[in-house]
Design goal:
alpha+beta; D-Maltodextrin-Binding Protein, domain 2; Dipeptide-binding Protein, domain 3; 2 domains; seven-stranded mixed beta sheet; four-stranded antiparallel beta sheet; 17 helices; 22 strands
Length: 520
């Protein structure tokens, strides 16, 4: 599940940009991967034609999509890899490698029909056997970040260009699920050596890697064999790990870059510098994570006391610079899965928080907690100050290896955030399901959640009842005592005016139709 500690941190690399850049500088001194012979091309060619120069805060830690595809870096990996489906501006699944698909009458089998005559950049054919291999590898590879997303798939039959996916349950979410985030498809020949693929990616996406400096820079050229190559107007891409946030805007001004993801704090400076600031809609939501299997959160009144102690508006005011909004859900307002009926649950009420703590038998100062995070984060300081107002002491502890105890459910109190899933059901399951990676209180789940999410999966996406059924599942999930959502913020991108407008596909960066003017 994709997530981050702030709106600009992938869960696969949660260090602040300045620390990450320093670490990568050390790596650069000793590691250099030459041009990938399988891809060919001249890295120097990226200086001509229409060149995208992208400074990324999410430069891939892993180029194997099975390992890295679920984090926020899926956008960068999508330069190289295509998927069965992709997402349009309405958030709906549309064709990518698959030109069409249909379910059987029962809804427990779906067949994807692939475009003919496609191939990976190593010359291997894009066919149903490649889809089958990708799914099975994502389910079985030991370091896969995707296996939990594929629980609905029992097996795959490969019939030429038809991939027949047999499901463990009726699940109409599959076209939404098997897009860029969860099933970016690599060449089976290249994927036979996952370690090699991790540093020498081979896909069937719009671009081909020609040079890769791990953790620092990738040079790519347009893939002439991409199924929609006629609508890709960018010839070359220079993808660079973003430097310190304070220098990104100046790099854009001087032409070192022409495209960069930025923090809300940089948006005004980017506008004043004459850059376009693109507000990309998304599914981002930050939260406070509690482990109800550990004291003091095994007391429901303490959990509710913390809920009422949180002033969401303060997060928005101090962290989003006018771009964010409060949310008590894993979705932003206006999204189909957002439940209006739950909008005012556990509104800020410090007096009620203090009362609940007293009823639970705690005096001010009795509760002392470690708030464990991987790096400095202003969210933690806000939480610390708000809890102090109701008599709870939270000591901020930084653990660079935070991910290990978090995903092992060993922490008591932490922060997290998500960039969501194109399948809303998968987002809900990741947060509230008994095995959800973002459920710090596993195997706990709120009563009725399993039945509610099953009903979502059983409801076709084009059904008139879909929104009602989905919002009902959100409502049940929000009864969870393990998560307190705080705020949502869109993705912000600063770009040169030479780059045309991007499609507003939620959470995705789609290069279809995008042009760069003034190129040689």
């Amino acid at each position: 599940m994709s997530g981050r500690l702030t709106s600009h941190r992938s869960r696969l690399d949660l260090r602040p940009a300045r620390l990450r850049a320093a670490a990568l500088g050390t790596a650069l001194a000793t590691v250099l991967v030459p041009a990938l012979s399988a891809c060919g091309g001249d890295p120097a060619s990226a200086t001509g034609s229409a060149t995208l120069k992208w400074a990324s805060s999410y430069f891939p830690t892993h180029w194997d999509p099975v390992v890295g595809g679920s984090g926020a870096q899926f956008r960068e990996l999508a330069l190289v890899y295509a998927s069965l489906t992709r997402t349009d501006e309405n958030g709906k699944a549309v064709p990518d490698l698959a030109k069409s698909w249909e379910y059987n009458a029962k809804g427990d089998q779906i067949t994807f029909h692939l475009h003919p005559d496609l191939k990976f950049s190593d010359g291997e054919p894009v066919n149903a056997a490649a889809v089958k291999a990708a799914i099975e590898r994502a389910q079985q590879q030991k370091n896969s970040a995707l296996f939990g997303d594929l629980k609905s798939i029992s097996s795959v039959d490969a019939n030429g260009l038809d991939a027949v996916i047999h499901l463990t349950q009726v699940d109409y979410q599959i076209p939404q699920l098997l897009g860029e985030r969860v099933l970016q498809i690599a060449s089976p020949k290249a994927a036979a050596s996952p370690d090699t693929l991790d540093q020498a990616p081979v896909g069937a996406g719009p671009f081909i890697v020609t040079q890769l400096v791990p953790g620092t820079k990738a040079v790519l050229r347009k893939n002439p064999d991409y199924w929609d190559a006629k609508n890709i107007h960018i010839d070359n891409v220079e993808l660079t790990s973003a430097p310190d946030a304070l220098t990104v805007v100046s790099g854009l001004q001087t032409g070192v870059y022409n495209f960069a993801d930025i923090a809300p704090s940089q948006a005004e400076a980017a506008r004043k510098a004459g850059l376009d600031v693109f507000v990309q809609p998304g599914f981002n939501a930050s939260n406070i994570s509690l482990n109800i299997n550990k004291a003091p959160f095994n007391n429901d009144k303490v959990v509710d006391a913390v809920r009422y102690a949180i002033d969401r508006q303060e997060f928005v005011d101090k962290l989003t610079f006018g771009y964010g909004s409060v949310t008590n859900q894993p979705f932003p307002k206006g999204y189909v899965a957002y439940d209006p009926q739950s909008a005012n649950d556990y509104a800020y009420d410090p007096a009620k928080s203090k009362q609940l703590l007293a009823e639970a038998g705690y005096k001010p100062g009795d509760i002392k907690l470690n708030l464990v995070i991987p790096a400095e984060d202003p969210q933690a300081e806000i939480v610390q100050a708000q809890l102090a107002k109701v008599g709870i002491t939270a000591d901020i502890k930084i653990d660079k290896n935070w991910a290990t105890p978090f995903f092992a459910k060993d922490l008591t109190f932490s922060l997290y955030g998500t960039t969501g899933r194109d399948s809303a059901a998968q987002t809900l399951t990741a947060h509230f399901g008994p095995n959800g990676p973002l459920n710090l209180s596993s195997p706990y789940e709120p009563a009725g959640f399993e039945e509610a999410i099953a009903k979502v999966r059983q409801t076709p996406l084009d059904s008139s009842d879909y929104a009602t059924v989905l919002q009902a599942a959100t409502r049940v999930g929000l009864q969870s005592k393990a998560l307190i959502f705080t705020y949502s913020s869109p993705n912000l991108i600063a770009k040169s005016k030479s780059i045309s407008a991007l499609p507003k596909n939620p959470a995705h960066i789609d290069w279809t139709g995008v042009t760069i003017s003034g190129s040689n």
